[in-house]
Design brief:
There is one protein chain. The longest helix has 24 residues, at 39-62. Strand 8 and strand 9 form a beta hairpin. It contains 19 helices and 30 strands. By secondary structure, the chain is an alpha/beta fold. Residues 73-381 form the AMP-dependent synthetase/ligase domain.
């Protein structure tokens, strides 16, 4: 029997079937990627998170800290530029030497030994880094005090750290003098970073550091340090009350560092930091630069007029932001050289979608990487796709690795809504816009929540029990988020007793406690209100007056200026006969927040802060219109 081959132009059924199968497969793949355009990015991101977990495990097994990595970089590239500050510059070797001198100065004082904490009350300047690195080299911890704090809040934050030594900047000495009697009574040693000091009870740290040797400190000085040991204390308003201390263990510092590595920075990058070093965000920029072996340009304070000049001066390639800084940059007069810079990447949080678009249109094709997270949190999100307005992506893989959820929330009762079985209900996110809900993240061995130092009550308030099943536990972020039909996550609002203004969390209970110290104010309900065109919410207080007294506007202004940091001072006051409360006797805020500070719809007397007159003045329609039109800068 013989077979004849197909004549020319004939077809082979098997070949045809293979071609058809290949075409169908190609169409299916095409359809899949059409319906899932971010699939490759999602997989790449989750794999990066898995890699981070692997690196973290290796660090735990070898007890390898960020300081160890810094010393490794110093050895590999001693002459590489580490830090620019004003007209100064420091190599990695110089940074190593100066931090060694600081660490040795602490040791030689006889007041600090391994395991102790030293409080740092400084603005953005290189010595902040030398002091912290020096403390790490001798197995100690630094408490990063917010330099806006004063009086009661400052003393409270210092006491939380249990430090016996405080180092302050010369320009902050007046704030230290307010609490100096209490510090001396506690036998606290106070140093000032200055060329000379004449204040009784305060010693000069510069002299001690100048006399110290820069010979490397032996590693056994930190022999007891593990990744569970304290590396820093960072303070957050949390949800209520006075600021709270969050322990940044060496492991948590690594977590922040490795997360920042997802941004894709490298050793050639120069990262510009104008946010306060007491912020976790600034720590992420610093640690990320060290991890990449790159360079940091430090600004003592954000300056909208000098921002781009600094970027050009230091050849900056990476900038860090909060929403307010981006808005300030976009509000400056346009210049011909707006795009004359080398910035390729911007990362941070809190940028509005309209500001985001304006920033890109004006300053060029810069990758913006918005992220979501909290100092005390156990979870973070990163908008790695560049979707304008989003804080991150929701994917099945990511949720599998780090369980989280957005659950229905009752804004009046200020608690998650639960079903008949007592479990929380996930918000609907398959709709095009998504349903806002409370963002929660599961507390596990992989994603722990260590809580607030010395505050078990507030720590427990952040935990949610029996969320989806008996015995599980989640962290309450205090934030309302939503997930749209494409899987993008958007920030909606804060809930409870905290709002955000000027890049800082403001605890309403703390502000209320402070302002009710004024004789004329009987009771206060503090909340945040939106101002058109501005980020966050401005502080407003609805108050009742003490019987027989009038509103002492000048006295109230002087009081809040003395006892509250600038971002926490109420910009508006509303005087009421009585303050509404909920069924559980909590102050009713929802209606007040909705009404805002509009005199068109409010009959109660309204006052607004006037910094030029050092007073609170009646809020007229003309002033209200000027504020909403942006003619008055709040």
């Amino acid at each position: 029997m013989c077979y004849k081959s197909n004549p020319a132009g004939g077809s082979n059924p098997q070949v045809n079937m293979l071609l058809w199968a290949a075409a169908v497969l190609f169409l299916l793949v095409l359809a899949f990627f059409f319906r899932n355009p971010y699939f490759v990015q999602d997989v790449r991101y989750v794999l990066s998170r898995v890699k981070i977990g692997s690196l973290m495990l290796k660090c735990i097994q070898t007890n390898f800290t960020l300081l160890d990595h810094f010393l490794k970089v110093v050895k590999a590239q001693p002459d590489k530029m580490f830090l620019y500050f004003q007209d100064e510059s420091f190599t990695y070797k110089q940074a190593d030497d100066l931090s060694t001198k600081a660490g040795r100065a602490f040791l030689q004082s006889g007041l600090v030994q391994q395991g102790d904490t030293v409080a740092l009350f400084l603005r953005n300047e290189p010595v902040f880094l030398w002091l912290w690195f020096g403390l790490l080299k001798i197995g100690c911890c630094g408490a990063f005090l917010n330099y806006n704090m004063r009086s009661k809040s400052l003393l409270h934050c210092f006491n939380l750290s249990r430090a016996k030594v405080l180092v302050a900047a010369e320009e902050l000495l007046d704030a230290v003098e307010e609490i100096l009697p209490s510090l001396l009574e506690q036998q606290v040693t106070v140093y000032v970073v200055a060329d000379r000091c004449t204040t009784a009870g305060v010693e000069n740290f510069n002299e001690k550091m100048d006399r110290a040797s820069s010979e490397p400190l032996p590693k056994d000085l930190r022999s007891n340090v593990t990744l569970q040991s304290h590396a820093a204390y960072i303070y957050t308003s949390g949800t209520t009350g006075l600021p709270k201390a969050v322990s940044m263990s060496h492991g948590k510092v690594w977590g922040v560092t490795l997360f920042s590595s997802l941004l894709g920075t490298n050793s050639e990058d120069v990262t510009y930091v104008s946010l306060p070093l007491y912020h976790t965000s600034a720590l992420a920029a610093l640690s990320g630069a060290i991890y990449a072996g790159g360079t940091m340009a430090l600004r003592n304070k954000f300056s909208v007029s000098q921002f781009w000049d600094d970027c050009r001066k230091y050849n900056v390639t990476v900038i860090q932001y909060i929403g307010e800084t981006m808005r300030y940059l976009c509000n400056t007069p346009k210049k011909p050289n707006d795009r004359s810079h080398n910035v390729r990447l911007a990362f941070g949080n809190g940028i509005r979608a309209d500001v985001w678009r304006e920033f890109l249109n004006r300053f060029g094709n810069i990758e913006v990487r918005e992220f979501y997270g909290a100092t005390e949190g156990n979870f973070s999100l990163l908008n790695y796709s560049g979707k304008i307005g989003a804080v991150g992506r929701h994917t099945f893989l990511h949720k599998k690795v780090c369980p989280y959820a957005v659950v229905k929330y009752d804004i009046y009762k200020e608690e998650p809504i639960r079903n008949s079985s007592g479990f929380c209900i996930e918000s609907v996110f398959y709709l095009s816009t998504g349903e806002p809900g409370l963002f929660i993240s599961k507390i596990t061995l992989r994603t722990p929540f260590l809580g607030y130092v010395g505050d078990l009550k507030q720590t427990e308030k952040k935990r949610l029990h029996n969320v989806f099943e008996q015995g599980d536990m989640y962290l309450n972020s205090g934030d309302l988020l939503r997930i749209d039909g494409d899987g993008f996550v958007y920030f909606q609002d804060r809930v409870g007793d905290t709002f955000r203004w000027k890049g800082e969390n403001v605890a309403t209970t703390e502000v209320a406690d402070i302002i009710t110290m004024v004789d004329c104010i009987k009771e206060a309900n503090v909340y945040g209100v939106e101002i058109q065109g501005q980020e966050g919410r401005a502080g407003m207080a609805a108050i009742t007056l003490t019987e027989g007294q009038q509103f002492d506007s000048a006295g109230v202004f002087k009081h809040v200026e003395s006892f509250l940091p600038s971002y926490a001072r109420p910009l508006f006051f509303r005087i009421q006969d009585t303050l509404e409360v909920t069924g559980t006797y909590k102050h009713q805020k929802v209606k007040l927040v909705k009404e805002g500070f509009d005199p068109n719809g409010i009959t109660d007397p309204l006052y607004v802060m006037d910094k030029r007159q050092n007073n609170y003045v009646p809020l007229t329609l003309n002033i209200y219109n000027s504020i909403t039109l942006g003619k008055i800068n709040m």
